[in-house]
Amino acid sequence: METKEKRKKDIINTFGELLVKDNYPPIAGRILGLFYTSDQKYFTFEEIKEELNISKSATSKALSFLHNIEEVGFTYDENNKRLRLFYVNIEGLVKRISLVLEAYNEQTKLFEEVLEIRSKENELLNNYIDKSILFSQDILGFVQEKLEHHFKDILKAN
């Protein structure tokens, strides 16, 4: 029978593998997996490094990446002002979803412009672009509505 700790490790590793598909470094995905699977709100640099059994350099690079995209933040320990405590930044996670939607929306607008300047010579590609526009409009409307519905409290805070 699978233990809870083994399952937690598997989930953390799967986050690392999965987020690579979204251009995250594998360690960054594992760090997010650690936050998601732990009841602990704050982690020190050393705790992250030890928990995931990764090097100081890999930990530093991954935390910098996650901090730069605002998915992980840090605060300082009250008792030791030099000790950083890292946490998952919920607002940053929701903001990232919004940014992905914005980029997808911009791509859809570009496709509309592309169709205006394309000739009729390559109907197969024109048809694909046309269907992509319709697909994107349907998806974007739905996802934006759900984003606002499920995360309205977080979106208002920003």
Task: Describe what you observe in this structure.
- The chain has 158 residues and is mainly alpha-helical.
- The protein has 2 domains: 4-88, Winged helix-like DNA-binding domain superfamily/Winged helix DNA-binding domain (Arc Repressor Mutant, subunit A, Orthogonal Bundle), CATH 1.10.10.10; 91-157.
- 71% of the residues lie in helices and 8% in strands.
- It has 7 helices and 3 strands; from the N terminus they run H-H-E-H-H-E-E-H-H-H.
- It has helices at 4-20, 26-37, 45-52, 56-68, 90-117, 123-150, 152-157; strands at 43-44, 72-76, 84-88.
- It has a 3-stranded antiparallel sheet.
- Strand 2 (72-76) and strand 3 form a beta hairpin.
- Helix 2 crosses helix 4 and helix 3 packs across helix 4.
- The longest helix is centred in the middle third of the chain and has 28 residues, at 90-117.
- It starts with a helix and ends with a helix.
- 15% of the residues are buried.
- The model has no long low-confidence stretch (mean pLDDT 93).
